[in-house]
Amino acid sequence: MNRLAKLCLFYLVCVQLVLCLTIFSSPSLSDYQPKDNLPTTTEIRGVWLTNVASGVLFVPWGIDRAVNQLSALNFNTIYPVVWNRGHTFYKSKTAKLFTGSDVQPLVNFVHGGQDFLRKLLRLAKPKGLTVIPWFEYGFMAPPDSELARRYPYWLTTGQGGVKSISEILPEEINNNPTNKLVWLNPLHPEVQDFILSLILEVVTNYDIDGIQVDDHFGMPVQFGYDRFTLEVYQKEHEGKSPPIDPFETEWMRWRADKITEFMTKISQVVKDIKPHLKISLSPNSQAFAYRNYLQDWENWVKNGLIDELILQVYTHDKSGFIRELEQPAVKFARTKIPVAIGITTGTLRSPVKIAQVQEQVQAVRDRSFFGISFFYWESLWGYITPESPKQRRTVFSELFAAKAERPLTIAKKQSE
Fold first, then answer.
1. How far apart are CA 172 and CA 316, in angstroms?
2. Is the dihedral of CA 381, 383, 385, 391 positive or negative?
3. Which residue of 227, 267, 375, 401 is 20 to 30 Å from 364, comparing CA positions?
């Protein structure tokens, strides 16, 4: 049995499991019809659609059901994955050229060769849902991916040639699966051309409302000791090598500024093609993002590189959640662009009670943010949740009783 046949067999087994787990949580839309008579408000109401620990992309009717449910419950934004684990989730000539595969194989198989992103847009647009494709994995890739195998010189490394964070962090705190991934070097011109080509394919070929990058659009602070980066640093520092300490102030700033330069290029090129498209960012807190991944998003906001910020605040602690909402960088961003808050609704391993979701949504609204987005679809009201799907949908129908338009849509209308 060849590799593709094994993958297909594995997929079929997974589909059967997903069907068994979800069939009893597939609601009738009559359970939560939208209340059209209520006034429209202004609020981002988003959700991320990912392929990790989620079956929505891997059953033929999954996208249809998701779009219908989200529309009926007055959501207005979908952030669908289009780049993850070295694969695209749309038909990509760039991916085909560099990896040999134009789309994630199982998604392609499930949807009968139909382009997933085009299918999602066809279903979502008539229902008024904003679709902002999400380049989820940024510069990360599996160590056995075609990109890593074909272009090893694209990878950035730590000292001693370390290729993944898992080789550096203590074992007791190294429980994040992404720590085992390698990182494409965001400073390398060929990597930049590759990532920019992916973005431009989506921008040019699809009727989307924007693009989104997230906390993985950077580089671990321990990295940058690869040959290419060392040579660039030495050229700009009279032959001196970078400090051994990866947290040295100037060394951090130099790498962060290089990443900002690339983000500037992305913003300029996207806006030149389609000025109306939103460039969205969903980072961690500024302090964490900069210290750990050299992502200086406060500077991105200051330089006008992004149009909306969806800050990830994935904590269960109430005081800690509120503290993140009141950080200086967040307050500054709110003076420049719409800022919404990313709230976790749970994962397969860590389900979140709906009471916590309600409490955090209220905390965001009490502070007059521009909305919320939930990570992720499968845990909104699926089979992994503490309460029944119907109970959770009832809560969302109360949270989103009236329809809502996105703030940038409102601004655009006012200017016309």
1. 21
2. positive
3. 267
Domain ranges of the chain: 39-415
d(CA 397, CA 416): 32
**416 to 209, 309, 409, 410, 413: CA distances (angstroms):** 18, 24, 11, 10, 5
Task: Please report, to the nearest 10 degrees, the dihedral formed by the alpha carbons of residues 109, 192, 286, 411 taken in order.
Answer: -80
Do the Cβ atoms of 187 and 226 come closer than 8 Å?
A: no
Class of domain 39-415 (CATH, top level): alpha beta
Structure tokens belonging to residue 110: 């499930």
Q: What is residue 240's DSSP assignment?
A: P
Distances (CA, A) of 281 to 228, 251, 263, 341: 27, 24, 11, 11
Residues contacting 3, CB < 8 A, separation 6+: none
Class of residue 255 by CB neighbours under 10 A (exposed 0-12, middle 13-18, buried 19+)? buried
CA 128 to chain centroid, in Å, comes to 21
User: Which position has the token pair 């009783």?
Assistant: 401
Torsion angle, alpha carbons of 402, 406, 412, 416, to 10: -20
Q: Are strands 371-375 and 404-405 parallel, antiparallel or unpaired?
A: unpaired
Q: What is this structure's pTM?
A: 0.90
Query: What tokens were used for 302?
Result: 């200051």
- C-alpha span between 93 and 75 (Å, rounded): 32
Report the chain (416 residues): mean pLDDT per 10 consecutive residues. 47 42 38 41 95 80 93 97 95 97 89 91 96 97 96 97 87 77 98 98 98 97 98 98 98 98 98 97 98 98 98 97 98 96 90 96 96 94 88 96 79 44
